[in-house]
Design goal:
Elements (H helix, E strand, L loop, with lengths): L2 H9 L2 H8 L5 H4 L2 H30 L14 H29 L4 H14 L31 H19 L3
Length: 176
Amino acid sequence: MSAKAESEARLLSVAELEIVNASREPEIRQRSLEELKSLGKRLRQAHDRAKDIGARQQREMRGKADPRGAKPAQDNTGSMAKVQVLFEAIQRLDAELSRREDADTTTPSQADLSRHALELKLSGQTEHHPDAGRSASEGKHMKERTTPAKIGTTRKEIGRVSQANKVAQARKDAPK
C-alpha cells in the first residue's frame, strides 16, 4: 500500500474510503452512468460534511464558537486533508462524466468517418465475374484496333501551320 493510500485510509471512514476508491481508475470506467451520478451525490455530501466540520473546528480554534466536545479543537489539518481528498475524488468523477458526455455528443473525427466508409465499402463488395465476350444475338460489334492510333501531328499539319505563319508575317511586313 502506498503512503498516499495509507494516509487516505487514516483520514477517511470505511464508507468514505470505499466511495473515494470507486472514483479511481479502473473502477470508475466500469460503472454505469446512474451509478456515477449516485456516487457523485454521496461524495458531495461527504465533502460538504467534512468542510463544515473543518470550518467549525477553525472557529473553535479562534475562540469564535463554543467547543463541540469537552475541549476546543486544537488543530483541523486532518479535517482539511479529508476535504482535499474528497474534493480530488469529486474532480475525478466530474472528469469521467464530462468525458462520457463528450464521447456521446461530439461529432466523429475524419479518421473515424474514413474507417467507417472503408468498412462499408469492404462489406458491400461482391465477387467480380468477367464479361462473357461477344455474342451473336446483339448484332455487329466494332472490331477492336490491332494497331495503336497515331498520336501527335502529321507532316501535312506541320507544313500547313508553318505556311500560315509565313503568310501572316508577309502581310505584316508589306508596305501599306
